[in-house]
Amino acid sequence: MSEPxxxxxxxxxxxxxxxxxxxxxxxxxxxxxxxxxxxxxxxxTTTLKSIMGIVGRRAGSVTFEGKETITRTSDAIARAGIALxxxxxxxxxxxDVEENLLLPPQxxxxxxxxxxxxxLFPNLRxxxxxxxxxxxxxxxxxxxxxxxxRTGARLLLLDEPTxxxxxxxxxxxGKTIRxxxxxxxTILLVEQNFRFAQTVAxxxxxxxxxxIIDHMANADIEANxxxxxxxxxx
Length: 234
What we know:
Layout: E1 6-15, E2 18-28, E3 33-37, H1 44-52, E4 57-64, E5 67-68, H2 74-80, E6 82-85, H3 97-102, H4 114-120, H5 122-126, H6 137-149, E7 155-159, H7 167-182, E8 186-190, H8 194-197, E9 203-208, E10 211-217, H9 225-232
Parallel strand pairs: 3-8, 3-9, 6-7, 7-8
Antiparallel strand pairs: 1-2, 1-4, 4-5, 9-10
């Protein structure tokens, strides 16, 4: 069996004196879409930030494409081929859509061209010279995802990409994730809506209090709906 693209073992993370992650472990094979489920405050976003090296302090092991990254800086991790699309989207208000899109450097070959991004998100072509502040929430999310697709990163960390969006935009985000999977991208998705996750994910890890407490395949979701409701408080 081949090595996973991403392997996280005994991952600990702190913000100042606050100990947030407690021995997190997960694996993602190349080309998989894996979802982190859990309530607010479970540690999902901190897990993504820890993989990227942008928490206060971390310990344990994060191996990407067979290479240990736990001691590397966040910019070195990005150059290795991991990209984070944060929940707050990080759109630069003073820049227009085109400038936001072209801002991150290409770190590896194989990223999508601007034209391919416009095929995915036609709204962005129409809003090309609109400032970031003029975009709707859905358009900002499209821009945030499009921006990391240019870089050539092969592992995409998507933090709550459907949060607060209209159902039609959520469908478009889901379609995009499925398309990216067919193109060989590997995705770790943080999501609270397991019904949306069910349309895109291969497997799930469930987090609670900074720990992984369960793991299941997409095929097992229906048999575990009651347990998931309990985990997620829905």
